[in-house]
């Protein structure tokens, strides 16, 4: 028989990691509730052209990373590589522009990108995503940043650092892009192939280059914040002023452009300790023209995406222990068929009383059943034999000291609740 293995970059989340995921997802829900965001879920599959149109043809996602296939109806589909384009499609298709604005939504789930796997970054990864739809006021930009900041603080992450920039708008961005092209064009033949492609198809992306050869040229590249139109300049000035008002520290990083074409004005990243050189834990920004680009009405919006696997990595590195999983505190053991039938009734009674309990199946010896209970680290093991069934009683073993007592079956729920 062939031995099947998981697909590269698509990890299994095993038992040891599950407490982290439970804790993180609970904190995500608490944070979303605190800020008044509502959950919206979208399909894993979308029309491939949605991302080509929304994300942009010159992006790494579209050029290299999307999982695209033709289904049996001949349609070109893609596993979602990011959330925003799909959420905007849902916003338009479901007539959500009629809802009160700004519309605050959040979601979480798997995304798929065929990229090089590295620590905390996989081809299938799970993101927490926030979107605020229908508001241009930069005070909303600060709110979105704060959602991420509050979440990471609640998880115990340390060394949080906020980096911001403005990526302009269609009024001022084209002139800046031309200045960028003019700056790099004399050195085109020295650029690596990927950066040559970026310069040709999406010049802003060259600012995000990690290529060693390109770094010296980036030091002297023009800054977009020196070439903003009055509207974008005012928006960026207000963003900084509002961040100063709440004493949220930040650094203006002129190289932040983010990897997607739809961004306008505000872009930001948050970095955290515990992630090594790949220390960006959150990135997002404003996309005021995306809804219109996808066929909806003009709708300013802002959001971010953040990978949950990276939260786990950072928490482990920093030694942050999540709460233990709420495993069952009681087992029910039995000897003989008559006792087994009674054990089935008892376990059902315990579950209905909301007492975490497990039946030890398989007709094993009592010694084996108690050994299994010990491995589960339960507080009490209930033992039923024919004598207990006849007397309508159950023997209870305290697993911490092996002491045993007898309790009337009808009283076992109350007895356990007093002690658990």
Provide tags for this entry:
single chain; 420 residues; alpha+beta; BirA Bifunctional Protein, domain 2; Rossmann fold; 2 domains; eight-stranded mixed sheet; five-stranded mixed sheet; 15 helices; 16 strands
Quick synopsis:
The strands form three sheets. This protein has an eight-stranded mixed sheet. A five-stranded mixed sheet has the order 13-12-14-15-16, sandwiched between helices. The chain contains 15 helices and 16 strands.
Describe the secondary-structure layout.
Blueprint (H helix, E strand, L loop, with lengths): L17 H18 L2 E2 L5 E3 H8 L4 H6 L2 E3 L5 E4 L4 H10 L9 E10 L11 E10 L4 H17 L6 E6 L6 H12 L8 H9 L13 H5 L10 H16 L5 E2 L11 E8 L8 E7 L3 H4 L7 E7 H11 L11 E5 L2 H16 L4 E3 L6 H10 L4 E5 L1 H6 L1 E6 L5 E5 L3 H8 L1
Parallel strand pairs: 1-5, 7-8, 12-13, 12-14
Antiparallel strand pairs: 2-4, 3-4, 5-6, 6-11, 7-9, 9-10, 10-11, 14-15, 15-16
**Shape descriptor:** elongated
Count of domains: 2
Report the uncertain regions.
none
Portion in beta strands: 15-25%
Number of DSSP strand runs: 16
Oligomer designation: single chain
Quickly give the structural class.
alpha+beta
Q: What is the helix fraction of residues, given as a range?
A: 25-40%
Return the CATH topology of the largest domain.
BirA Bifunctional Protein, domain 2
How large is the count of helical segments? 15
- Could you give me the name of the CATH homologous superfamily of the largest domain? Bira Bifunctional Protein, Domain 2
CATH architecture descriptor of the largest domain: 2-Layer Sandwich
Query: What's the pLDDT, averaged over the residues?
Result: 93
What would you report as the Rg, rounded to the nearest angstrom?
28 Å
The separation of the N and C termini measures 48 Å
């Amino acid at each position: 028989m062939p031995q099947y293995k998981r697909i590269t970059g698509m990890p299994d989340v095993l038992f040891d990691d599950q407490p982290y995921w439970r804790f993180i997802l609970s904190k995500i829900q608490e944070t979303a509730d605190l800020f008044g965001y509502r959950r919206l879920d979208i399909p894993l599959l979308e029309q491939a052209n949605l991302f080509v149109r929304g994300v942009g043809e010159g992006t790494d996602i579209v050029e290299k990373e999307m999982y695209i296939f033709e289904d049996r109806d001949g349609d070109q589909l893609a596993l979602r590589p990011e959330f925003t384009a799909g959420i905007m499609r849902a916003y338009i298709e479901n007539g959500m522009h009629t809802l009160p604005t700004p519309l605050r939504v959040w979601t979480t789930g798997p995304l798929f990108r065929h990229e090089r796997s590295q620590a905390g970054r996989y081809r299938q990864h799970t993101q927490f995503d926030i979107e605020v739809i229908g508001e241009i006021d930069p005070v909303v930009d600060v709110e979105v940043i704060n959602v991420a900041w509050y979440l990471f603080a609640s998880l115990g992450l340390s060394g949080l650092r906020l980096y911001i920039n403005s990526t302009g708008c269609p009024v001022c961005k084209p002139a800046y892009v031309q200045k960028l092209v003019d700056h790099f064009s004399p050195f085109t033949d020295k650029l690596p192939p990927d950066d040559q492609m970026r310069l040709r198809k999406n010049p802003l992306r060259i600012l995000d280059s990690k290529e060693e050869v390109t770094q010296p040229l980036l030091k002297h590249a023009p800054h977009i914040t020196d070439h903003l139109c009055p509207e974008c300049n005012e928006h960026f000035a207000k963003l900084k002023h509002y961040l100063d008002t709440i004493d949220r520290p930040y650094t203006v990083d002129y190289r932040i452009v983010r990897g997607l074409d739809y961004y306008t004005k505000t872009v930001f990243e948050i970095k955290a300790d515990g992630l090594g050189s790949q220390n960006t834990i959150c990135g997002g920004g404003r996309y005021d023209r995306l809804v219109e680009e996808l066929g909806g009405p003009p709708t300013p919006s802002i959001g971010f995406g953040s990978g949950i696997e990276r939260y786990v990595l950072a928490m482990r590195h920093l030694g942050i222990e999540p709460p233990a999983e709420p495993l069952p505190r009681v087992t029910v053991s039995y000897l003989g068929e008559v006792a087994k039938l009674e054990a089935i009734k008892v376990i059902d009674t315990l579950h209905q009383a909301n007492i975490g309990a497990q039946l030890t199946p398989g007709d094993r010896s009592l010694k084996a059943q108690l050994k299994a209970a010990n491995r589960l680290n339960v507080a009490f093991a209930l033992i039923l034999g024919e004598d207990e069934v006849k007397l309508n009683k159950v023997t209870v073993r305290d697993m911490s000291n092996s002491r045993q007592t007898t309790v009337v079956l009808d009283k076992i729920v109350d007895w356990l609740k007093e002690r658990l």
